[in-house]
Specification:
Number of helices: 5
Distance between the termini: 78 Å
Shape: globular
Strand content: 25-35%
Low-confidence stretches: 1-7, 10-40
Number of domains: 2
Order of helices and strands: HEEEEHEHEHHEEEEEEE
Radius of gyration: 26 Å
Helix content: 25-40%
């Protein structure tokens, strides 16, 4: 009798167990679907005009954008290294929006695998694609009509004077500047400096050239470009 009673009780529990299984299995499937759907947004094939990229070193997700024949990160790099990088005014909260500032030497090696610091020529291609001249390129960057490059006033840091600044001496002289990987000689002595993309709000020009920034003492933001 006792055994029969246990069997009857187990039969009564079957619908309850089935319901619990249905609920948990359904939630699990939905969660898995949500995860997979989210992962589909990470365009590993880099097809189309924009998408997302994951830096496997720290899991950071970046937006990328296609401009002409080039693919750029649409955000400043935020990868932290042991030396040669600094947060604006030492505040980590600034990194999320503006990225780290890197000296010219560290900048050469910090882009993720499959990406690199742009050459002077690659910056010139970008410049010429968004505008026919320095002024038109400046206006494109200023008005965010730059096909998604999305330049930011991330500032710079001068190590020798321990000075952070977003402007050149007067507030209206905002300057956005990005390192390139190309060394250029600008004097008779043969001293070489890394070329930069400079967006100068005071002079209203965007230019790829050499500002004389010392690669060890000057810290600037960087944008990475995808390898061909």
């Amino acid at each position: 009798m006792k055994t029969k009673k246990i069997i009857e009780e187990l039969k009564l529990m079957i619908p309850i167990v089935s319901f619990i299984c249905f609920v948990f299995c359904s939630c699990s499937s939905q969660n898995q679907f949500a995860t997979n759907s989210k992962n589909k947004k990470i365009n590993t094939e880099f097809s189309g005009n924009n998408g997302l990229f994951i830096d496997q070193r720290d899991g950071k997700v970046y937006k990328w954008v296609r401009i002409g024949t080039q693919i750029w990160l649409a955000e400043n790099l935020t990868f932290k290294v042991d030396s040669g990088c600094i947060a604006y005014k030492y505040k980590e909260k600034n990194v999320k929006k503006y990225g780290f500032l890197y000296n010219g030497i560290t900048a050469q090696e910090v882009c993720p695998i499959g990406w690199h610091l742009p050459t002077k020529n690659e910056f010139e291609m970008l410049h010429n694609f968004v505008g026919n001249n320095h002024y038109e390129a400046f206006m494109a960057f200023k008005k965010k009509e730059d096909y998604g490059f999305n330049t930011l006033n991330a500032g710079l840091y001068h190590k020798e004077s321990n000075e952070f600044r977003r402007y050149w001496y007067i507030p209206r002289s905002r300057v956005d500047e990005f390192w390139s990987s190309t060394l250029v000689s600008i004097d008779s002595v043969g001293v070489k400096y890394y070329a930069t993309l400079t967006i100068n709000y005071f002079r209203k020009i965007a230019i790829v050239g050499v500002s004389g920034s010392n690669s060890e003492n000057e810290f600037l933001p960087i944008r990475c470009i995808k390898d061909n």
